[in-house]
Amino acid sequence: METIGFIGAGNLGTPIVTNLLKAGYKVKVYNRTREKALPLEALGAELVSSPAEAAVPGGIVMSLVADDKAVESVAGDELMQALGHGGIHASMSTISPDTSRALAAHHQLQGVTYVAAPVFARPEAAAAKVGNAVISGPAAAKERIRPLLEAGFAKNIFDLGEDVGSANVLKLMGNFMIAGAIEMMAEAFALAEKNGVDPKVAYEMLTTTLFAAPIFRGYGAMVVDRTYVGNPAFSAPLGLKDMNLVLQTATRSHTPMPLAQLVQSRLMTVVARDIKDADWTALAMGALEDAGLKG
Amino acid sequence: METIGFIGAGNLGTPIVTNLLKAGYKVKVYNRTREKALPLEALGAELVSSPAEAAVPGGIVMSLVADDKAVESVAGDELMQALGHGGIHASMSTISPDTSRALAAHHQLQGVTYVAAPVFARPEAAAAKVGNAVISGPAAAKERIRPLLEAGFAKNIFDLGEDVGSANVLKLMGNFMIAGAIEMMAEAFALAEKNGVDPKVAYEMLTTTLFAAPIFRGYGAMVVDRTYVGNPAFSAPLGLKDMNLVLQTATRSHTPMPLAQLVQSRLMTVVARDIKDADWTALAMGALEDAGLKG
């Protein structure tokens, strides 16, 4: 079976590589901190010591790293030369649409195809292969990476067309809407608590009827129970990074987004206060503490 | 079968009374504008010319009117005397929790029990009896009105306890969260459009996965298609009234709600511009037009 390169053995990369190994793929893994990838070696992955070593000529490298800078540093000339003509780089990180477009142009000069394939999944959803993928880029390359996304984490794959930036825009929209959902639950539950209504009862009613969606069930429980510190599935600094990307994209395209500004500001406070092991759901502390409640 | 009094033959009252008639109840209907209730007379309702005439001694009167003032004007001494000892007034309007509590105290002095039972349903959902009811007040009275809520519109009934204001608080939380959902979709879809992503594709992805809930499917389609003017199921002025109640309740309980302020301001603009036949979803025009798009 095909050998795949995978760059990034973080919270999401680890379950995805695990699934690829289970599906029978050979996987070469590069992670900046080698120690974090050792569990994958135990499962059969080959650990390599540079992004370029993860590539086979004409093959596929998937990357899932922290931010725009990390993707740019990974996808340098060495990786391009190692992948060579016919090679594909599937960039799964949540990054700016503009960075995606610039990377795609740079890849093309060297015969490599860049595909954007950001991941909608918390780690446990990726492990269970019930995540969602959005992809954009040239059609033939998308066809080649589809089976990998399915084997790795995705229940559904949504094709956003040829412009590689489109999948990144949709990923930013989704993360913005999750943050907005957390803010609105925090404000609503604060109102409940300040007016003698049990937030757990309100949560149960709203998330089994009008708002019966995974986002409200999962994050709503974290807001009501204040379980957003200790075991972050998606950290507040990463959430802040994403809201910064939303606002950067909004600013460049002249799109005023006051709700996005509000949640970005809430996340900035969580990071500024250096709250240890905060999930991005901790943005709910803003509305709760503003109302004089325990955040 | 029992004779029920029903006050208010508006967009929601009409399908509810229709269902009660179908279920075999005799219904006496009072509506300020008698003409609007004529279709219910054709279905077998008895039209009466004052709220008090809708009541039978010791019976049940349900009211579903526009706002706090309308409920207060309906639930005067004449209605109290007509209902008399053992009578129940089920107040289904979206009103302030404080108004509910004051009305309950006033009713009790005259031997009538006041129950809060606000309606979560758009007219078509009420007609199909797939709405949701939240109720609060004394237990025995709640038991008596349960079958009426089920026969009239409700698939689920959530009991918020003895404090009559509680159901009103939850109803305000729900309406605030719907308005928040509209705002966040409007900002996200504006971002999509300004960045070359088809909002319909983004809508389809987000509302079948992370946000697969009725609120996002229904209102999201109205935002994407700009079908929020012409045939309002819930008008912008009523939405503004509700957001005013949210902020009034928030202010009295010292609960800062910046997102609630934002959507209230958006609705105020729709009303200030006197946009004819605007549904409250028209608050989406704010984010769209701010971004230079057609609202």
From TrEMBL, chains A, B:
The active site is at residue 171. One of its GO terms (molecular function) is NAD binding. Gene3D superfamilies: N-(1-d-carboxylethyl)-l-norvaline Dehydrogenase, domain 2, NAD(P)-binding Rossmann-like Domain. The keyword Oxidoreductase applies. Residues 165-283 form the 3-hydroxyisobutyrate dehydrogenase-like NAD-binding domain. Keywords: NAD, Oxidoreductase. The keyword Acyltransferase does not apply. Residues 3-158 form the 6-phosphogluconate dehydrogenase NADP-binding domain. This is NAD(P)-dependent oxidoreductase. It comes from Chitinophaga fulva.
